[in-house]
Amino acid sequence: MPTVQKPAVTGRALARSLWRLARIYWASPDWRWGALLLGGAIVLEIGSVYATVLVSDAQRITLDALGSRDSRAFASSIGFLVGIVLLSVVLAAYRVYVRQVLEIRWRRGVTTDYLERWIAPQAYCQAELHGSALDNPDQRIAEDVRDFVSSALGLSLSLLASVATLVSFGGVLFNLSRGWKLPIGGQTYEIPGLMLWVAIAFALLSMWLTHLVGRKLVPINFERIKREADFRYGLVRFRDSAEAVAMTRGEEVERLGSVARFQAIARNWLELVRAERNLGVLTQGLGQANAIVPLLVAAAPYFANLLSLGAVVQTRFAYEQVAGALGWFVSAYREIARWRANIERLISFADAIDATARDVAEGGIELAETDARRIRLEDLRIEAPRGHVRLADLNAAVAAGEHVSIRGEAGTGKTTLVRALAGIWPFGAGRIERPPREHLMIVAQRPYLPIGTLRGAISYPSPPGTFPDEQIEEVMRSVDLGALTARLDDDEPWEQKLSANEQQRLAMARVLLHRPAWIVLDEATSALDEATERRLQELLVTRLPQASMIAVSERAGDGTWRHRWRLAERADGRVALEAA
Predict the structure, then answer these.
(1) pLDDT at site 225
(2) 6 within a domain of the structure (yes/no)
(3) Is-contact 564 579, C-beta < 8 A?
(4) Count of domains in the chain?
(5) Cα dihedral angle (24, 25, 26, 31), rounded to 10 degrees?
(6) What CA–CA distance (Å, rounded) separates 113 from 95?
(7) Which has more pLDDT, 379 or 571?
(8) How many CB atoms lie within 10 A of CB 308?
(9) CB within 8 A of 417, min separation 6: which ones?
(10) CA-closest candidate to residue 223, choices 129, 345, 111, 109
(11) Per-residue pLDDT averaged across 494-504, rounded?
(12) Which among 339, 361, 383 is the end of a domain?
């Protein structure tokens, strides 16, 4: 199968990737609310810029009133200034509020889309086919989506504000410096809008230098996100497997592994801080220089009595606003670098999911959901994802109500056969007919126990509250878990609290609660002694007399099973299904 390559997120590729991610939300039913909130955010951004223009003008009037010692004009200008400042404060607060409401709605839409695509029957095949492109899917969905949405809004709205600021204060700056006469060498020179052209020239130089120094940040940030997620996943895995590690005295290996993963973080971090140090030195130097430029340029006409102090102050303020708007790229460079890393991780994740969906759709095994009367294997061949044949020439049928045992030595492909029956292993050829998924319940050797209460673990895959407590307690007692009935509401990591024996008995309780028409047991009683295994099999037969059962295991079993088959290796090395 092909390996998904990381997209080169630059130029057109960046635009296509950005559009793919953006349309997830903006093509959803919630887009109207999003558009309303976005419109409000735009209005508030532009309103904040306009309020800043008014503040600048009010400051000039106030300073000129001070310079002329006009107390009446000063009092009037102060009242106007206070009113404008209060307005700008309100606009700034609601600008943040509206943006945050839009951010969580957008994030919810993208997160829901990724969850629907990731938490699906094909998820098992993802790691088999595209494991290298799917490191830490939890981190990509939880953090990369959050950071992508936050940066998309933050960068776009700040860019809009910068453009509005440039338009507003660019005109102000041009008008302020339109008639400036610079006395140089005994001559007087006039350059219309001098300060605006100085700001533009300085901004272009700053952008070029910033990109030259800071372009290393994108790959470093991509690697940083991956290293951090690997380290966190290792700690979570140890937490979930602490007992097994302690039993095997593997603490030292786990500790060394965690230290090695953190050392990778530290190396990446040092590389990052060195790159950011270089960028920081440059941006800080440019910022300080930019603060001096307007004073240097305005000094000559001021000392020549061609400008008032208020005009100099307003010019400097307008220059700072224009320079800040033109320097948007410089100030946002770090966030842009992180954002591009988020986009690359999300797009490579989406590509891997899509590639898996195509691979599954192109899989050679035909899975047909018919009525609930039989399971049939017809010329079934099961392969590894890259073509190695595991099982071949499987032809068998199980009718409704029958009990069948399929035995096989370890490594003969028993669990792979069950995966094919479940529809999560499409690699191979032939045809599988089976009942609809809702009529089929597959019980694995290691049953999955979700996070939450014991009631939720027993009711799974139905939600908690589906079954009354009396029914849950009765089936728990029937599988010898009566001692746990008082803990139904306890929220614990049950996968760690319960032994393998208890987990398998809990899985049998699930079967008794759900009463499926078809039951497939994949080594589902391997942790039980033979007496308990026999008793639970008899319990299933007694409680669910109409159910069809297929038990896949290494054990020979007893008389519970009407038909007995076995997976046996042939002379050509392939495994076939034979009557036992």
Answers:
(1) 79
(2) no
(3) yes
(4) 2
(5) 150
(6) 27
(7) 379
(8) 15
(9) 382, 391, 394, 406, 552, 567
(10) 345
(11) 89
(12) 361
Q: Is 212 helix (H, G, I), strand (E, B) or coil?
A: helix
Taking a C-beta distance cutoff of 8 angstroms, is the pair 220, 268 a contact?
A: yes
pLDDT-based confidence at 8, cuts 50/70/90?
A: very low
Instruction: Tell which residue, 372, 509, 358, has the closest CA to residue 437.
Output: 372
d(CA 9, CA 340): 7
pLDDT in tens, 358-410: 776 666 788 888 776 788 888 888 887 666 777 888 888 888 888 888 887 87
Decide: 382 and 425 in contact? Cβ < 8 Å: yes
- Encode 20-56: b = buried (16+ Cβ within 10 Å), e = exposed: ebbebbeebeebeebeebbebbbebbbbbbbbbbbbb
Looking at residue 77, which CATH number applies to its domain? 1.20.1560.10
What is d(CA 28, CA 26) in angstroms, rounded to the nearest whole number? 6
The whole domain housing 114 covers 11-361
DSSP letters along 274-302, please? HHHHHHHHHHHHHHHHHHHHHHHHHHHHH
Residues 112 and 223 in one domain: yes
Environment class of 296 (CB within 10 Å of its CB; exposed 0-12, middle 13-18, buried 19+): exposed
Same domain, yes or no, for 209 and 302?
A: yes
Q: Give helix then strand counts, H and E, for the chain.
A: 19, 14
pLDDT of residue 560: 63
Bond from prior residue into 461 cis (ω within 30 degrees of 0): yes
